[in-house]
Write a structure and sequence with these properties.
Blueprint (H helix, E strand, L loop, with lengths): L5 E5 L6 H12 L2 E4 H10 L3 H11 L6 H13 L6 E4 L5 H10 L4 E6 L2 H9 L1 E4 L4 E4 L26 H25 L2 E5 L3 H15 L2 H11 L1
Parallel strand pairs: 1-3, 1-4, 2-3, 4-7
Antiparallel strand pairs: 5-6
The structure holds adenosine-5'-triphosphate and 2'-deoxyguanosine-5'-diphosphate.
């Protein structure tokens, strides 16, 4: 079997990780695993980890490292036959070290977006709490203002996306992420992309992955996901 491809996407809240991950999944057939989505699934299913994680997320805190790694590493083990892209994990150095001992990464994509742009995007971000679907009132608005496209239920704004909480949250992200970025830079697998628009970053991410992902693998992955 040809070698599988393992990638991580890093970036502050609002940097476009989810948006780019979806494009990577559909263009290259990688499985997209978002820690936030996986946590929400666990919360909905009331698993032990989900019940525990909920208490932290509700307070706007990060879920402790040992809870996150106990949740994510077994999920990755289930995907040993797939190429994947991880979004939202690892978020701390301890998580990155745990991931390191479980598998070898090929590429780390790091999104470097100006603070003003992040603030502007998150100010306009609305979510459907039950599903985690994300809208942006400018970039991808819902079909009907204030209402989820699929369920018709009302959208809400995260407390921590409101302007008062945002700056502190983004600053905290930077402190926690720096050692993770440094680790991947030292390993020589970090690729940093800086711009204010996802549409301008995407062509560079796409050509990086086209160069790194073996063609036969990309074809095989696409065949299994379509
Ligand atoms: N790797 C992680 N380590 C710790 N907590 C996590 C991790 N991933 C997600 N979480 C928790 O789940 C919550 C939701 O995560 P999610 O990534 O969906 O949203 P977010 O924090 O708004 O970030 P982003 O805007 O970058 O997607 C986080 O606020 C955090 O409490
Ligand atoms: N205006 C604008 N908005 C963008 C762009 N790329 C993504 N967005 C929107 C979509 C979301 O509402 C918000 C954050 O994007 P996301 O993909 O959820 O980011 P992340 O939090 O997963 O890193 O910003 C972009 O390039 N321009």
């Amino acid at each position: 079997m040809s070698k599988l491809f393992r990638a991580v996407i890093l970036g502050p809240p609002g940097s476009g990780k989810g948006t780019i991950s979806e494009r990577v999944a559909s263009s290259f057939g990688l499985q997209h695993l978002s820690s936030g989505d996986f946590l929400r699934e666990n919360i909905a299913a009331k698993t032990e980890a989900g019940v525990l994680a909920k208490t932290y997320i509700e307070k706007g805190a990060l879920v402790p490292d040992h809870v996150m790694t106990r949740l994510m590493l077994p999920r990755l083990e289930e995907m040993t036959r797939h190429s994947w892209l991880l979004d939202g994990f690892p978020r701390t150095l301890a998580q990155a070290e745990a991931l390191n001992s479980a598998c070898e990464l090929d590429v780390v994509i790091s999104l470097n977006i100006p603070l003003e742009t992040l603030k502007e995007r998150l100010r306009h971000r609305w979510i459907h709490p039950a599903s985690g679907r994300v809208y942006n009132m400018c970039f991808n608005p819902p079909r009907v203002q204030g209402v989820d496209d699929i369920s018709g239920e009302p959208l809400i704004q995260h407390e921590d996306d409101k302007p008062e909480a945002l700056v502190a949250r983004l600053r905290h992200y930077k402190d926690v992420a720096k050692p993770v970025i440094d680790l991947y830079r030292a390993k020589g697998i970090l690729h940093m992309f800086s711009d204010t628009e996802t549409d301008r970053i995407w062509p560079y991410v796409s050509s990086l992955l086209s160069a790194k992902i073996p063609t036969d693998l990309a074809d095989a992955q696409r065949a299994t996901t379509h």
